[in-house]
Amino acid sequence: MCGQPCMRCGEQCPGFRMHGWRKICVHCKCVREEHVVRSVPGQLERMMLKLVSDFQRHSISDDDSGCASEEYAWVPPGIKPEQVYQYFSCIPEEKVPFVNSPGERYRIKQLLHQLPAHDSEPQYCNSLGEEEKKELRLFSQQRKRENLGRGIVRLFPVTMTGAICQQCGRQICGGDIAVFASRAGHGSCWHPQCFQCGSCNELLVDLIYFYQDGHIYCGRHHAERIKPRCQACDEIIFADECTEAEGRHWHMKHFCCFECETVLGGQRYIMRESRPYCCHCYESLYAEYCDACGEHIGIDQGQMTYEGQHWHASEECFSCACCRLPLLGRPFLPRRGLIFCSRSCSLGEDPDNSDSCDSALQSKPVSHKTIQNPQHSSTPRPQGGSSVTVTSKVNTCRTAVKAASTTTASFPLESKGTNVTMHYYIYLAFLWWFTHMHYFLIKIQGIYIT
Ligand SMILES: [Zn+2]
Ligand SMILES: [Zn+2]
Ligand SMILES: [Zn+2]
Ligand SMILES: [Zn+2]
Ligand SMILES: [Zn+2]
Ligand SMILES: [Zn+2]
Ligand SMILES: [Zn+2]
Ligand SMILES: [Zn+2]
To answer: Where is the PET domain (predicted)?
Structure first.
């Protein structure tokens, strides 16, 4: 499998070549779905056929699978040609799978993304032990038996008063085309464009859904509600232990530098776009230079960031360009790529014989001035440095620990038993609370000046 161009990177990628175990392109690091796939790959075709046949075995309906017409790569099964047209007229045009159209490529991309072959068949996984293979089979069988379904497209009977769409809450009238999902109960129906995954909000590819606790999901996101997924190899984690960082999970051996693949368990690392890097690679790839002194800003040094500019978070470097007043923890005025303590300094006036400087600051709410900036340090600290980001418009200062140590999590659930699953939801709720609380605390530390 080589050569398919990347839709995201264009010329930058010479063509898709699979990484040894990450399931991304070694050239551009994008996932395979981003690379043009003109036909459903054989591996996926086989997996899909198996999924559909497994589904039919468990299915209560006697529906046949969607056979393609000449015009479309796929059509909903069991409906008349004019209803096929009515169904597709509800779907955004760029998502209608006309043969050789962007809609067909969208369908293939979604098949690859929503129904990962490695979620159901051990042979598509990289290095599962015998025990893990057994668990994957059980996991996959259980989901097919208890959650998997295929939406059925039907004309809503004209004789009936209509129903409410499960997604948008709006009316579906007699004579409208609607999607029914037997797992969700017999009255449940959706507008064709509303039959989406409750997690990624994408149309459920080929109407294949997984039903859980009142919601429908794509295969990928349903699996992730039950088990953690490794951020590096994209496989479901069946091992008892995994590495957890920032609410995401990795196989222990897969928590390694995205660049040099040094294993980072117990080591310091820096996360960038949800990918961990060793300090060495991070510095050589993403080094920032201080706008004041021109020196490199080390990962252990505090950093101020504002609209793409960077400074050492030190009194000398982050100071007024006119009078050198240190600006850490103070409101500042950015102008023409420089920062100033006041309007008068920004206009190049002598700060000593002007009171406009004071009046400019006094007109600001006092409460904002009393809030302290986070601590900054230019000396290395054992837990790593702080990065202070000042975002545009409202100049909010926030601290984020860039380098940190990993934690090892014993994942608190098995594939069976609702009690353990409950723990997982409580755990998720806690994670949500923790991240949002953290964000909230950061926000109230904001200082702004207009
Ligand atoms: Zn790419
Ligand atoms: Zn590529
Ligand atoms: Zn709807
Ligand atoms: Zn989804
Ligand atoms: Zn992994
Ligand atoms: Zn590295
Ligand atoms: Zn500097
Ligand atoms: Zn000044």
So the answer is: 53-161
